[in-house]
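Q: For a teaching session next week I want to show students how multiple molecules come together into a single three-dimensional assembly. I've collected the sequence lines for a complex. Could you give me the predicted structure tokens for the whole thing so I can convert them for display?
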Amino acid sequence: MEDRVRTTISKYEMLRLDDKIMVAVSGGKDSVTLLHILTKIERAFPEAEVCAVTVDEGIKGYRDEALKVAAKNCRKLGIEHVVVSFKEMYGYKLDEIVAMAQGKELTPCSYCGVLRRRALNVAAREADADKLATAHNLDDEVQTIILNIIHGDAPRIARVKPVLDEAHPRLIRRIKPLCEVPEREIALYAYLKKIELQSVPCPYARTALRSDIRTMLNRMEEKHPGIKFTISKSIEKIRPALEAAAKEAEIKDCKMCGEPTVGEICKPCQMLRGLSIL
Ligand code: SF4
Ligand code: ZN
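A: Of course. Below is the structure for the complete assembly, covering every listed component.
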């Protein structure tokens, strides 16, 4: 698995020898495993640096344990660990946002995902990181492709890729070194290496359509081994055509908060305004 990650990194030219890499560590098996593997790989490159960030969304009974697990793993690996919270950044915890969003169309995961992405970018920029590594695995990537199809958002498929475009100077380039590793293999690796992980699932997880897609794909994979790889490979072939078809969206500064965004007002500001927070 370590070799596969090394291959993915060089195939997509994810890293330079002297990069400062910030790893987004939630405390779950994927992100903690990524932190262990990247730390191991980067030891061979003394000019490179690995640090970690955890976003505290404010999810009672879930994030507290995850934070401890993330901090413990960072201490063990001798890595600097930054924690940023929704409360500090947006004034509200996710639990409070979910309560305010009762009756609205968006799910807790929609708010969580958009606001976390922003928080991670700001944290990486403030840490002066060159790359922001996230632990998306093969399963996550294939689920996202199917989700985008179901949502009728085909152009977004072009944007789900191993290294995200750096379309604005304030967007830290995101890389996904585990994108070619199936989730099961990560679980096995973490188990064999006795890596300490968070055990509690997020209380909001089942609200997501993603979990239905996950179940469907796992069932299909069992009957037809290799389909996740095949879907991912197919998209790799289709992506250039999709990219060419999608008009280059210009990234501007949000009129409300100044962060990079497509359009006039960024997603986080739109969401917070929808809840009458802004
Ligand atoms: Fe956030 Fe949804 Fe993940 Fe829970 S399951 S941490 S709400 S994205
Ligand atoms: Zn904004």
